[in-house]
Amino acid sequence: MSKDYSAWYKVGCSLCVACAVLSSAGVIAADGDVGIITFTGGVTGETCKISNSTGSQSSNMTLVMPVVAKKDVESATIENGGVGRTPFDIELSGCATGISRAQVSFSSEEFANLTDGTLNNDTTIDDAAKNVNVVLFNNGNSQSSQVFIGRQDDTPQIVTLDNGSGVFSFAAAYVPGPQFNSNSNQIVPGKVHTNATFSITYY
Asked: What start and end residues bound the annotated signal peptide (predicted)?
């Protein structure tokens, strides 16, 4: 029987994406045109230590996503993996005795798009891109499906711990928002900024 420790041992994470979608290919990104995903979180109680893709013992992570062309986002779909796909890991180590598995799920009260499970852009920022969303994919542990953020039909990624350690692997990419229409509701180049939280349940 599994034990859900999430009530006590919740790992909080802010996922922030800032990027610029360029209107033509081959343009060199100027300062401020790079995409950044910033993770901040923490673990309480005797669960696991969290580190990031760089291997540093910190739950804070910065993932730089590429600047992409508007036309590439327009032709991208969730089914074909989006564009600007960038992998990242959430690493567990030093997990308490008795914990053999862990699972992670994502949510976002402010930006979750329940239509397609992606993250909406924060359109309140200056020079915000329009109709550009961020999609997450499972990228390991025998899973490659989309992460449906905030939806009940999402299948959380599960990791079996080996000597108290395990790795959740994901990838983020850009896709058109569900309201995108190439004729009447086009993509507008600009910055993308969004966030989500992840929580880890231990068994």
From this structure: 1-29
